[in-house]
Amino acid sequence: MASQLRLRFALALVTGAGSGIGRAVGVRLAAEGATVAACDLDGAAARETVRLLGGPGSDEGAPRGAHAAFQADVSEAGAVRRLLDQVQACFSRPPSVVVSCAGITRDEFLLHMSEDDWDKVIAVNLKGIFLVTQAAAQALVSSGCPGSIINISSIVGKVGNVGQTNYAASKAGVVGLTQTAARELGRHGIRCNSVLPGFIKTPMTQKVPQKVLDKVTGMIPMGHMGDPEDVADVVAFLASEDSGYITGASVEVTGGLFM
């Protein structure tokens, strides 16, 4: 962890902050000095994250200067607009760091996948990131503030994975979306990058059968699955001015898997 508070003036909005990578990101950004607006579909989980950060929080928002918890469904445009309005009302400024971690899986083989399972995954994992990126960018441009937008993709979006046509498509889309946003928003001082985790120890991977995890672990050059904190380390770097000339990048955090 960095020895200095690289984000001591930042307001960071983290979606999917109630567990896994999102929670680890919130903890790390707060440790770097950022004020964190933790958002999750599960409002109670978001509030628990805020408690872990050491801020007083509240059921919806928090006093200025404290970390805050918010509840929102990122797949709904109205909910995302309200979220950004609530964050700005709470802190009197737009978030200068935005990390989209919200994501779901609905795994099934291509031959049997339902349209509903396809639509749900695309709605959260891809449309949700579009909505959050757009709303955050609009707020930053309107205020004339620079910012760093970091979208969590997946190595599966690059190489595919059996039983995850919907998830792989959504995560591949995140990379293309982020690269295009980087081209459009650079002139406004807004950097956009994506992070591609490999197999990380999260509630999502806990659903994977152990024999599959054992097989995958055997393919990882570093010999073990990653921790959420491994991803949070990279997010903190991309959020800070230490990466001030990096935009449109896709950073893999995989232990060497599929390199």
TrEMBL record:
Enzyme class: oxidoreductase
GO annotations of cellular component type: mitochondrial envelope; mitochondrial matrix; oxidoreductase complex; plasma membrane
UniProt xrefs under InterPro entries: KR_dom, NAD(P)-bd_dom_sf, Sc_DH/Rdtase_CS, SDR_fam
Catalytic reactions on record: testosterone + NAD(+) = androst-4-ene-3,17-dione + NADH + H(+); a (3R)-3-hydroxyacyl-CoA + NAD(+) = a 3-oxoacyl-CoA + NADH + H(+); 17beta-hydroxy-5alpha-androstan-3-one + NAD(+) = 5alpha-androstan-3,17-dione + NADH + H(+); 17beta-estradiol + NAD(+) = estrone + NADH + H(+)
Matches recorded under Pfam families: adh_short_C2 (PF13561)
Record-stated family: Belongs to the short-chain dehydrogenases/reductases (SDR) family.
Quaternary structure annotation from Swiss-Prot or TrEMBL: Heterotetramer with CBR4; contains two molecules of HSD17B8 and CBR4.
Listed name of the protein: (3R)-3-hydroxyacyl-CoA dehydrogenase
Organism of provenance: Physeter macrocephalus (Sperm whale)
UniProt lineage: Eukaryota, Metazoa, Chordata, Craniata, Vertebrata
